[in-house]
Amino acid sequence: MSTQTVTATSTPLKIRRLTYADLPQVIALERRAFPTPWSLAMFVLELSKSSGVCLAALRDGELVGHMICSRYDTVWHLMNIAVDPVQRRQGVATALLNELIERIGGADGSAQITLEVRPSNKGAIALYERFGFRSAGRRRRYYQDNGEDALVMWRTPATLAGRLDDIPNVAL
């Protein structure tokens, strides 16, 4: 697929496939971004799957964000999106989501994508809603660090049309 370049600040942002060589930077970013970061083994497992989409966002050659999305039959599961805290609100997550949607053929709205997000993460929820994701329920006590629920969100042809009547009930 194409490499996407976005200028959110004075320095362009480059989006490309995440590689094993990126993992030291990914792990460091995870530790800065999340109270319960993914382990190295989790990233290795996701990178080993041929059906997934794993993306890196780089600015000035430094990894400033990453995304992991796995495919389960006809549904995509956005499992991890992280942006370095000092790079937030500069278009990194938006660029990653745009590239993901382009790569999975979702620009026409046909791809079904789901994710979990903390209800307290208002910025992420607003971002996902701009991309057509809608809340479809909760996973109780999903987050290990504080027992917070997860808000389950979906992006489907129905949510893009403003309806919630056709959100899949898929166990992931």
TrEMBL record:
| Documented EC number(s) | 2.3.1.267
Q: Name one Pfam family in it.
A: Acetyltransf_1
Q: Which SUPFAM superfamilies match?
A: Acyl-CoA N-acyltransferases (Nat)
Broad enzyme group: transferase
Question: Can you provide one Gene Ontology molecular function annotated for this UniProt record?
Answer: protein-N-terminal-alanine acetyltransferase activity
InterPro entries from the xrefs? AcTrfase_RimI/Ard1 (IPR006464), Acyl_CoA_acyltransferase (IPR016181), GNAT_dom (IPR000182), MshD_Acetyltransferase (IPR050276)
Task: Kindly state which keywords UniProt assigns to this record, in alphabetical order.
Answer: Acyltransferase, Transferase
Q: Where is the N-acetyltransferase domain?
A: 13-158
Q: Which NCBIfam families match?
A: rimI
Could you tell me what this protein is called? Ribosomal-protein-alanine N-acetyltransferase
Identify the species of origin: Conexibacter arvalis
